[in-house]
Amino acid sequence: MGKNNAGIKPVNPVRAESDRVIIFDTTLRDGEQSPGASMSLEEKVQVAEILDKMGVDVIEAGFPIASSGDFNAVKQVAKIVKEASVCGLSRASLKDIDRAGEALRDAVNPRIHTFISTSPVHMKYKLQMHPDEVLEAVTASVTHARTYTDNVEWSAEDATRTEHDFLCRCVEAAIKAGAGTINIPDTVGYTVPNEMFALIEMLRERVSGADSIIFSTHCHNDLGMAVANSLAGVNGGARQVECTINGLGERAGNAALEEVVMAINTRNDVLSYWTNVDPTYITRASKLVSAVTAFPVQPNKAIVGKNAFAHESGIHQDGMLKNTQTYEIMTPESIGLKESSLVMGKHSGRHAFKEKLKDLGYRLADDDFQDAFKRFKDLADHKKQIFDEDIEALVDDQVSQGSEHIRVVALTVIAGTGGPQKATITLDVEGQHETREATGEGPVDSIFNAIKEIISHNGRLALFEVSAVTAGTDAQAEVMVRLAQDGHTFTGRSADQDTMVASAKAYVSALSKLQAKLQEAETAHTIRIVE
User: Fold this and answer.
1) Which end of the chain lies in a sparser environment, N or C, as judged by fewer CB atoms within 10 Å?
2) Is 0.85 topped by the overall pTM?
3) Residues 54-95 pLDDT 10s
4) What are phi and psi of 486, to 5 degrees?
5) What is the CATH number of domain 23-293?
6) What is the CATH topology of the domain spanning 403-523?
7) Contact 73, 61 (CB under 8 A)
8) Which residues partner with 118 through β-bridges?
């Protein structure tokens, strides 16, 4: 394996640098392209901060040319990240690269990631370019990116469906132009592990200069093999894996960061590599990304799913009581997961609440802490037993609602078998209170109709989902709402002991994101890409 010329220093000199796997997180870019998963600037900064703390090597913060929102997000993340390399994506266009360079101006270690399609189907139908033109664009784009930074990554979009001879020519051209990282994406999730292993190995053997750069994988999960393909690429000689928290991403998602890291940590006997990632941050990062995107993690999701460390089978429980290693190959503590307890209640003070937040991985600013404590006390007045999950739902709801310009102030609902279903709601819209009343085919329909009376929109309700945070009739309800309009989806999530209040807040959260997207579209043309 070649040297690391990507400008990233090893943390532990005892372990061989040649065995190090660079973790490139693209939650803020590729992850956000998942329909309905858009994040606000403040939310992106929060995610970037925890990625930086957990030891992620490269944070791909966005696609600066796509919109003013993406440009500002990359610019702000570049300012606040202290350790990781901050990366901006660009097509093989000088204008794209200039925009990325400008957005990354304040980064400690900026990286420009430029790409172009190389497969026959993409060149013919997407680019409408001849292979020689693509080859020229590779050289020109990497050369121009080098005028902004020595840390340049080049990607061959749809690499796994590209003819090998042409792929070798493109990779060699990118290396000669100065790219320090060469990414080989499985853009459509088509390949299988033995093919990915052979592809990386082939490139290392055939391409001149391959021993001087880092090969990277970027695998999508359409066939459920993104993590397996990524690790196969590492076995083939790749030393960077591009991934996302919770496997978030377009279509079926991307390789999940938590699965890649914990596979290497847990099976280091056969995957003899290492990463800089501190896995005790995994649970917190997973919960934060789930909260700000309003994308719940499936219960049986590997590593971070609610059931990942749950044992219901009698045989399994018996084994666990005798020795946890009978059915657990890693500990909950290794990913920052603490055992749930019932120590919090209405008599708990600020200090105890702050310590509980620390145990759960939250670090709130003073104003945010005061708001969270007030909400906790309000909840404790109505709910005798406060579980850790209740506190997580409470704080995550505060995080997801924090940057929105529409808020629920008051709600009254009349429902039942004997009369009309009616809702009266007061919203705070940009600091102004507005109240409307509406009827509907049930209490939830009435609430949503009343909201539409205040803020007229053409969004279609694509999803309405209710779940309980914990067991019991006094449990908080967690509601997810998804609105669809003009090919985009916007997801909102909220938790409250009152299901109707949670429904209203979730709908308003989704609507707030829809409104923000419409305002952004008025000032900039948004470009949507798949890598």
Assistant:
1) N
2) no
3) 999 999 999 999 989 899 999 999 999 999 999 999 999 999
4) 55, 40
5) 3.20.20.70
6) Double Stranded RNA Binding Domain (3.30.160)
7) yes
8) none
